[in-house]
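Data availability (excerpt). All sequences and predicted token strings are deposited with the supplementary files. A representative entry, UDP-N-acetylenolpyruvoylglucosamine reductase, is shown inline so that the format can be inspected without opening the archive.
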Amino acid sequence: MSTAETLPVVRGKLTAKAPLAPLVWFKSGGPADWLFEPKDAGDLSDFLRDLDPAIPVMALGLGSNLIVRDGGFPGVVVRLGKTFAKVTVEDGQTLSCGGGASGILVSSTARDVGVGGLEFLRSIPGTVGGFVRMNGGAYGREVKDILIDADVVLRSGERRTLSLADLGYTYRHSELPEGAVVIGATFRGRPGEPAVIQAEMDRISASREASQPLRSKTGGSTFKNPDGHKAWQLVDEAGCRGFAVGGAQVSEKHTNFLINTGDATSADIEALGEEVRRRVKNKSGVDLQWEIQRVGKPE
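Structure token line:
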């Protein structure tokens, strides 16, 4: 990995050997070679333009839906700060959102100005950049249903605006180029009454609280729902509820969630997921696919 002397000069903050475990929901995993918190979009663009193209780059939002392996990330992790967390109303039904804005902030801003259709973002524990990248969704809605376009900085440093079609969305997947960082997105909703929007957000919040292990160290939904199946049901039918590997366990509350019971390594969590996949395949013949992103190198 490059030394500080060979990295581009930045106006933001650049940290060597930065611990990532405190920044991810699982609270496990090794450090990043470098953590870059850009001052603004220009700082990010210049840095990526001048960075050795061989050095991997990964954007990190709130750290949900992510396993950082115990050997850490061999490259630069980009984390967007408050500069990228603004949400503004462009017109009656359109919101311009920074890549670092949370789903809660976006949905609450929409509610305040009477824009409906974005309530589901209240339930996605991540930032605009993360759920634009993976076509995040819940409660029957997906980002592709509300996205107009996304502003990105490519690995080359080039800034581009990508349309909905450019992103090639499928279930929990986009064609966003490797190393690209989403710095903003434009969403369109529909007219709605704030009180009705709030009631739907309350319903979603209560449903999550009742059914998901939100107070545990977890990574959100672990596996994608296969066509015609619910992942949690397949895991349950394979006898995996409560099953553990080391300090990692399949949640008793929701079997499509893995939890860190206290001292799990990322290797424990990933091994548990792979064993669940094996058991489901043996029981039902279905090949579960990871929804959680796994990055970095083993220890």
